[in-house]
Amino acid sequence: ADPEVAGDSGEPEALLSALSTGPVGLGDRVGRSDPALARRTCRADGILIKPDVPIAATDESMVGSAAFRNELLVAECFTDHPAGRWAYVVGLHANPGDEPVTGTIAFDGLGASAPTGDVVVWDWQAGTATRLGPDATWPVTLPREGWAYLVLAPVLPSGLAVIGDTSKFVSAGDARLEVAATTTGARFVVKGAGETVSVTGWAETAPVADGLSVEHDPTTGLWTIPVPVPERGWATVAVDAG
Does the pTM exceed 0.85? Predict the structure, then answer.
């Protein structure tokens, strides 16, 4: 994460480390690490938050030789919960050329991460949420070494979506969150170590969480719930769609 060494690549390198399901190594010089960047990969107690499977390029990106041609490289992985599958999708300008790369991320081409129903797409860099269908496409234009990162959270039968802890790269990794759908919304277990975790989601109308405050933006549909996680390491929250 040392900008004198990594330049602008520290954040995508940390992202790919987190999505690899392997170790996250802090290889910076002494005193030059970025603690805020490192914390996006783990909980307060240092436990890494990972997907269920390591990130891998899609078949189309492999066949298209996106590492050598002016093509968008798309890679994906996922986390499974009782409520469904959360996908993590990365778009990269991975070739050595200076020309921008323009392409689309086709949801139905994501292999094992392809959604089976509507999803809410969390654009990591823009901080926005968009509801789309399973056959949607996401346009991407990237400069040299540019990247895009999307989290696809399933829309539950109640019409509510749980994106997760958006301060972490793997927002719905099972080291942080377990999500189950209910007839009226969702029930999730938030994991941590004596910390308050802000859980983010999407709903057309403001949801209700018993005993906890819910902030909802009617323009964007985004809601957040600060969840205090006691020293025992977990807290359970039930959310009902409005």
Answer: yes
